[in-house]
Amino acid sequence: MKNKQVNLLIIASIILLASGCAAPVTVAGNYTYKTECLGNDQDGTQIVKAWGSGKRRAEAVDQAMKNAVNDVLFKGITEGVNGCEMRPIVSEVNARQKYASYFNSFFTDKGAYLNFVEPRYRNIQDGDLKSTRSGLTAGIIVRIYHAQLKQKMAEDGIIRYY
Q1: Domain boundaries, the chain
Q2: For residue 129, which of 120, 119, 139, 121 has the smallest C-alpha distance?
Q3: Structure confidence by residue, pLDDT tens digits, 86-110
């Protein structure tokens, strides 16, 4: 009886050691795409490439447009070519949380953000549409009406316009 318990203890120890030495499981598809500057126009607009995810193509495109406006407002555009405004429009710390009700309605599916972003091309190139476990990730080129967006934030009291 004692011999069986010792054997069982040895087998359990070997199993625990073997499972503890296994390589960690990682997911290879967790790449985050950043919004990047492609250029700007003289009329106060910026051309950027933004990425979004969704279950369907239309959802991914809508999310990419929201991400583009969100990045211009709160992060600034630091990737890509020089020429885009690198500083965010809203530089106040935690402004997204402070004005949560304003920005929640601003970024709804039919929200005001659509007045400040316009897709440049109707078709997405094959390299800009990627399948993921949960749906699709789409990269689109959009025009951001930076000057008008800044003016809107000033009119609504989110920023001070100098």
Answers
A1: 29-155
A2: 139
A3: 899 999 999 999 999 999 999 997 8
